Amino acid sequence: MTKNFAIFPLIILLTIVSLPIAVMYGFLILDTFTDAPPGELWPDRFTLAHWRFLWDPSVVGNVWKAAGNSLILAVSIIVIVVPISSLAGYAVSRLNLPFRRFFLAGIMVMHAFPAVTLLIGVFFVLKFTGLYNTMIGVILVKGSLMLPFGIWIMKGFYDAVPWEIEMAGVQDGASRLTVFRRLILPQVKPGLVALSVFAFLDGWGEYLLPRILAPGSDMEVLSVFLNELVQADQLGYDFNLFKSVGVFYTLPVIILFVLFQNRLMNIFGGGTKG
Amino acid sequence: MTFTATRTALTAALLSSVAFGAAAEDYTITVWAGGSGDNATYRWEAIEMAADQMEREAAVRGEELTITVESQAWTGWDDFKQAFTLASEADNAPDIIVSGHEDIGPWSEAGLIVPIEDYVFFDSYPLNTIYPNLIDVASFNGQIWGIPQDAEARVMYWSIPALEAIGWSSDEIDSLPERIESGEFTLYDMLDAVKKMQDEGVLDANMGFAPRVSNGPDYWQFYQSFGGEMSDEDSGKLVVDTAALKGMYQFFVDATEMGVVSGTHLGSEWDVWHQNAASGNYGAWHGGTWHYAQWTNQFGLEDFFNTVQYSLIPAGNDAGRANSITHPLVYLVTSAASEDEAVIAAELIAKASTPEINALHAVKSAHLAISEDETTVPLYAENRWLAAASERLAPSTNAIPNNSDFGVYWTAMFDGLEAAWTGVSSVDDAVAEVETTVKQALGDDVIIR
Amino acid sequence: MSSSADLNTGVARKSRRSDRRRPRISGLGLALLAPALFLLTLFFFAPVVLTGIFAFTDLSTSTGIGRGQYVVTPNLLRQLGDQGLTEDDATAIASVSITIDEAGIARATEGGVDPDFLSEIADRFAGESFDDPRAFSRELRGLPNAPRRPRELTQTAEYFETSVLNTRFDNPEALTAQLADVAPDVSSDTIAWIVDRSYTGARFTTANFERLATQKETLRLIGNTALYVAATLGLFNVGLGLFLAIVLFYTPKPVTSFYSTLWLLPRITPLVLYAIMWKWFTWEDGFLPIVAEQFGLPSFNYMKGSVVTAWMTMISLNGFIGASFGLILFSGALRAIPMQQLWASEVDGANRWQQVRRIILPQMRWPILFVTSYQTLSLLSSYEQIWLTTNGGPGRTTTVWALEAFTTALSNYTGNLQYGLGAAMALVLVVVGLVLSIIYLRLFKFGELVSRPKIEL
């Protein structure tokens, strides 16, 4: 490379811009294992005390139950989003449907437009179906809100499958459904995996819907659990404890992210977060 | 999968509603309590104790009765009120709720609660011992809807060491509450005093005066300090007293300009506020009688009576008066309870209101007694703070009105206060905005002065 | 998996099949689509429609949701008194009469009241009248066979009572009949008026929109929202995103992958933890204030302590999430630039800045437009992050439209949930969102994204 393309100044610049994130995440991990004197940043001793909540429910309550509930929520959302999106995605990618353009335009709009502003309307639907204050209601709502995204992503994967595969299957006399099941689905497996991981992450991190739509439910999830902890004004702020619970909460996310990073990179481009 | 899940949930809901009717002597009563931290657990534990008592009484009568009490508590108010309102609309509300008395207005109009007077005798023990003014606070539209759960007063606290440091004699400090009550010592005198503390280096800047950090009935006290009335006694209509609102907003603006409180004080953290209050870092601050329990139990305040003076909220000008607001919580029976459950729930509430049981809550959370008898319960009588607060503050307290439209007014008042205090709009504009908003929403049901 | 990125950037160039024969509709397609359609209808379309309807009502906590009831209360009578109800009429309507007569006994017997108790009532009070229900209840309690439970007693008392006050009726006819019974002298016009006013449920109104159109607060909210969206987008989602993408384009692979992972962290971190991390970062005794103090700079709670720092915090914390969206899209677009072009410019002696300006930036036009449009919508309607951090404060200085809609309708201190007004505010967002979406769809040549299915047999 020429002198014009020296790398070093760039890395310095990059590091400065990225410093806040590096600091926040660095200390997030650091603070869970250490204690610092009051008013100081740098820790002066190692401790495991912040992790006591894992086996001692008297610290913050039963964190495992909340984790279990979060797991149920996240897995249920996969169960809703992935099958339904892969069916609908195939239909809009390959089959001739009335109002197909209109439907796709609708999906596009909904995909871009986070529906949290419609919460009042959503509440009414839950009220009429008797699902308010139940985890099933939260799962259905969250799953539905993710559907436009899921369908759009899956449509992209189906579009990329060469149509000769399908043609060959149909000409061999297999039904369209069989072709879909036997030949096409295996082709979009990467898409299914990516969407599953994404749905899991989204469900695991969800906070607003469980808090608003199932406040009295016994199924308190980790996000609500953690925020409740931070809200209590009597305790005195113990950021190290919050961070430890937070790291515990985020661990599955990090693991999944590391395992599926490249696939997620693609899909995040279509993500709906601000 | 979706369909099956939905159907199962519906069936479950149906089954559970049938089950209630079938087993007549086996009840599950759910209790939700709002705004209740670690000190206020007796709000629902009292119901549990009452259930135990009722089961024993039934056994003595030779009946078999099992009551399971399920409780849930919220530390904040917004979540709690939202959860209850939405749950009621969705038909899965609890049977008993503990909330502020001002909720009786909207909730009774919407049919979310039932008048408890149909379910209990107010002329029998223990309800006949409850202070009549508290019963009034639990009444709306000529009916008694709830049973008072606690009472309180809101207090202006003063740092005795800081007052001494600016040269106040102990006589002056001792007589402060009386001078405030008589209207001689006003809010502006307070600002001068705390400003002096800051100027002399006793306190840090912006630490002279520390009001409540979030919305609360407390701010209506300052409206009253400047001569405001919340509702008109004769017509029962809400009153927007523009002069009083101006006086009140101007007071907070002036305090900010003097540098004794920060312009962004609202919305700062409770935790920090408690810590500073308990450590004597403020000159004057206002809170509730119940904060005493938090400071002494959790924030390490040891010698309260020698370090903290307490008084009514001073008057702001000649039009106003020194005052304090009591904001009793009430037990309410919801319309989600079946007729049978409502009967049990109301009886549980009545039993939980006996002086001995209520005193547990009063003393643990530093709230005031709901009845004369309760003040004679030894646990309560021995408590110096409650005795002192009852004597000095309780006689001058009043409550916010029970009016279903009060929430609109309250929200507008606080929005205006925030706007003026942070300097987003001028005091005049903020008051004009409150006037327009309230007038637009309530029309003839509000009196503008 | 480039296809989805292509679709998103709107630069897809697909060959269009010219298929003149109109193929028949696929039944299988409809079946495959059905579950999605069902859920979307239930949780997307229905809420939109409901929001549209509620926006034109005064629905709130006190009206309740669903059908209201009809009830005459003392407060209502007082209000009506101001509007012309005569005192005589009001007194007549408010009257309560309790008469112990045959009819009452018969009603009570039918209602299943203990016969022993009833015969005591008949013996003791036959022919008597009371006008205070509480006094009557007290009398009843004195009887030997009085039920132990207060509720049974009040219910028994009600069989002898004629009154209309505070009784909830499900339909106007029942209330009208009762009113005529209690106050026969009141004219039927007056009764109709009272019945109409006694409705507790929501009514249709345009007041929400009038209020939004006239109050000063609206302008302030629009200003805040515009500032929030513009600053977050400009500085972070596009500005920082583009900067990172270009810089990482030039760095060696390990550096690139390290920093892109780092910048993705805010996006995958659960919101609640992310909010806690920012609190730790900005609060007193947190990272920034401690560092600032060591440099002698003003040190306070930056998230809530001053208007300027609250805005900076709010924009940064949203922007750090948004930057990765731009980063990913721009990186994808950068990789699509033919390397030959870049090499050629290097041979020509262009420096890096010239290369970026002449070759890279012109190619970024569409991705920038896409990120801008897409994220404008997201930012307009996102409020969770703000709610969990500044919560619109200090004062209401960082309150944006979506947050205000949410707090008005669903979450505020006084518990006075104004669903109608909140829905009106949400509806404004829906309309803005729809209009913007339609513009974007035209802009990004929607037709090409949804070209006819490839196979139709």
TrEMBL record, chain A:
Keyword Disulfide bond: no
Domain ABC transmembrane type-1: 67-260
Alphabetized SUPFAM superfamilies for the sequence: MetI-like (SSF161098)
Membrane topology, from the record: Multi-pass membrane protein
Stored PROSITE patterns: ABC_TM1
Transmembrane segments: 7-30, 71-90, 102-126, 132-153, 241-260
Cited InterPro entries: BP-dep_ABC_trans_perm (IPR050901), MetI-like (IPR000515), MetI-like_sf (IPR035906)
One Pfam family cited in the UniProt record for this chain: BPD_transp_1
This protein's UniProt keywords: Cell membrane, Membrane, Sugar transport, Transmembrane, Transmembrane helix, Transport
Cell location: Cell membrane
Gene3D superfamilies: MetI-like (1.10.3720.10)
Main location (coarse class): membrane
Family: Belongs to the binding-protein-dependent transport system permease family. MalFG subfamily.
Function of the molecule: Part of the ABC transporter complex MalEFGK involved in maltose/maltodextrin import. Probably responsible for the translocation of the substrate across the membrane.
Descriptive protein name: Maltose/maltodextrin transport system permease protein MalG
Source organism of the structure: Marivivens donghaensis
UniProt lineage: Bacteria, Pseudomonadati, Pseudomonadota, Alphaproteobacteria, Rhodobacterales
From TrEMBL, chain B:
Entry keyword Transport: yes
Lineage top rank: taxon: Bacteria
Pfam families assigned: SBP_bac_1 (PF01547)
Alphabetic keyword roster: Signal, Transport
Signal sequence range: 1-24
Keyword Transcription (UniProt): no
PANTHER family tied to this protein: MALTOSE-BINDING PERIPLASMIC PROTEIN, MALTOSE_MALTODEXTRIN-BINDING PERIPLASMIC PROTEIN
Protein name per Swiss-Prot or TrEMBL: Extracellular solute-binding protein
Source organism of this protein record: Marivivens donghaensis
Gene3D superfamilies reported for this sequence: Periplasmic binding protein-like II
Membrane-crossing segments per the record: none
InterPro entries for the chain: SBP
Stated family: Belongs to the bacterial solute-binding protein 1 family.
UniProtKB/TrEMBL annotation, chain C:
Subcellular location(s) per record: Cell membrane
Main location per the UniProt record: membrane
Transmembrane is among the record's keywords: yes
Domain of life: Bacteria
Mode of membrane association: Multi-pass membrane protein
Keywords recorded for this protein, A-Z: Cell membrane, Membrane, Transmembrane, Transmembrane helix, Transport
Entry protein name: Sugar ABC transporter permease
Keyword Plastid listed: no
Span of domain ABC transmembrane type-1: 223-440
TM spans (from-to): 226-250, 262-281, 308-330, 419-444
Pfam families listed in its UniProt record: BPD_transp_1
PANTHER family found in the cross-reference section: ABC TRANSPORTER PERMEASE PROTEIN, INNER MEMBRANE ABC TRANSPORTER PERMEASE PROTEIN YCJO
PROSITE patterns: ABC_TM1
Membership in a protein family: Belongs to the binding-protein-dependent transport system permease family.
